[in-house]
Amino acid sequence: MKKRVKKAVIPAAGFGTRFLPATKAIPKEMLPIVDIPTIQYIIEEAVAAGIEEICLVTNSYKQSIENHFDRSFELEEKLKASGDLEHLRMCEDITDMVNIVSVRQKNPKGLGHAILCAKDFIGDEPFAVLLGDDIVVNPKKGAIHQLMDVYDKTGKSVVGVQTVALENVNKYGIIDPADMVNEKLMKVATFIEKPAIDQAPSQLAILGRYVLTPEIFEKLETQPAGKGHEIQLTDAIDRLAQDEPVYAYEFEGNRYDVGDRKGFLQAQVEFALNRDDTRQAMEEIIENLGYVKDPEFKKEKEEPRKVSE
């Protein structure tokens, strides 16, 4: 009988060098989009999909991530004493949203190795993987929830993909589609980690969301180092696909690469414009800086920009 996906792994052991000097002392996952740490958006997506347990794969300087999702008794008592019940409930909700454990990736051997570090936590169950550099917004159904729906129908591993520009294929794991099941779902022939532009079999890139069967661990345990002398998850999935069907699903949603400065800044602006409590302030900032010359912007002040569904 097919098991339900109840567990998720979120790798969070990277050093975030693209955001130095900020990440010298602060984990990149704790850098906020407006006033919420990026990793909280990822965990909220998992919880909304029905995930019950999450394993954070971290390193020795990522304790602030664990602290963020733990109780802060002194802060809670201060908020309670001052009558600030709104922020008290906010802090309690963060702590209570899901059961979180963490394991250490003692050596930086790549994404595949990070997933392997969670093997004991996962056991023999299917599981979700959400990468912290990718925030995906879909008000109807989150990206990982869409993949979990595919797993429920197929019982096989599935990766989330979207089309990227040809000049960017060398930044991602790229799939070579085999058979189209429907408009968005396909079986995959091969997976290639960061191919050269002239060797990419498609422009469908794996973008930070996976549902994997536990058979992936056998592949990871025997996976030789690949690109960057690291154990690549894409390479292990490619080997898995030689033994059993592996699917790709073109998920719906606006994706923000918050591991990249441009994507991080774009998320700041668009998230602020889509929040009732920050929209006016962001519009005024943009307008006062003189950057807005598009007359359509005036219309958006009366009709706020909606995230595509």
From TrEMBL:
Statement: the UniProt record of this protein carries the keyword Nucleotidyltransferase: yes
Class of the enzyme per the UniProt entry, highest EC level: transferase
Coiled-coil residue spans: none
Reaction(s) catalysed by this chain's protein: alpha-D-glucose 1-phosphate + UTP + H(+) = UDP-alpha-D-glucose + diphosphate
GO biological process per UniProt: UDP-alpha-D-glucose metabolic process
Entry's Gene Ontology molecular function annotations: UTP:glucose-1-phosphate uridylyltransferase activity
EC code(s) of this entry: 2.7.7.9
Keywords, comma-separated and alphabetical: Nucleotidyltransferase, Transferase
Residue span, Nucleotidyl transferase domain: 7-269
Protein's UniProt keywords contain Cytoplasm: no
Family to which this protein belongs: Belongs to the UDPGP type 2 family.
NCBIfam families: galU (TIGR01099)
PANTHER family on file: UTP--GLUCOSE-1-PHOSPHATE URIDYLYLTRANSFERASE
Name of the molecule in the record: UTP--glucose-1-phosphate uridylyltransferase
Organism this protein belongs to: Ileibacterium valens
Taxonomic classification: Bacteria, Bacillati, Bacillota, Erysipelotrichia, Erysipelotrichales
